[in-house]
């Protein structure tokens, strides 16, 4: 994490940084790179201070692919629905499909979460942030 963060900060610093009120293209990569490097340092320091206190062997399990598949499918659905349906259907599809990746999530809970975030997020990006993304559209732009 530290190496990735330092790399992102270094690469982002080759672009114009700007100021907080008028951010340049390098501002966000540098800020996120620094945060990622600091987080990696905190994790490494925490591990170093705690040390290895267990004598039990490390057991490796294969990760459950359901969450990863649902999140990637949600992003692809956002791209497709964003182009052909608008911001609100795209946000709904992203949140709904991604939340189904959680084994403890139910269909009803995913539906409510997706509905609430689609309305709130779409209206937030459309009006206060003034993003030129139509809330609803039919067909290709």
Separate helix tally: 5
Mean pLDDT, nearest integer? 87
What number of structural domains do the residues give?
A: 2
Separation of the first and last Cα atoms:
39 Å
Low-confidence stretches: none
Briefly note the structural class of the backbone. mainly alpha
Biggest sheet statistics? none
Beta content: under 5%
Please give the number of β-strands: 0
Q: Element order, helices and strands? A: HHHHH
What is the helical fraction, as a range of percent? 55-70%
Whole-number radius of gyration?
A: 20 Å
3D shape? flat
Task: Explain what you see.
With 141 residues, this protein is mainly alpha-helical. It has five helices and no strands.
Q: What descriptors fit this protein?
A:
flat, mainly alpha, 141 residues, single chain
Question: Briefly, what is this?
Answer:
The protein is an all-alpha fold and 141 residues long.
List the helices and strands and how they pair.
Elements: H1 2-12, H2 27-50, H3 65-84, H4 87-99, H5 107-126
Helix pairs in contact: 1-2, 3-4, 4-5
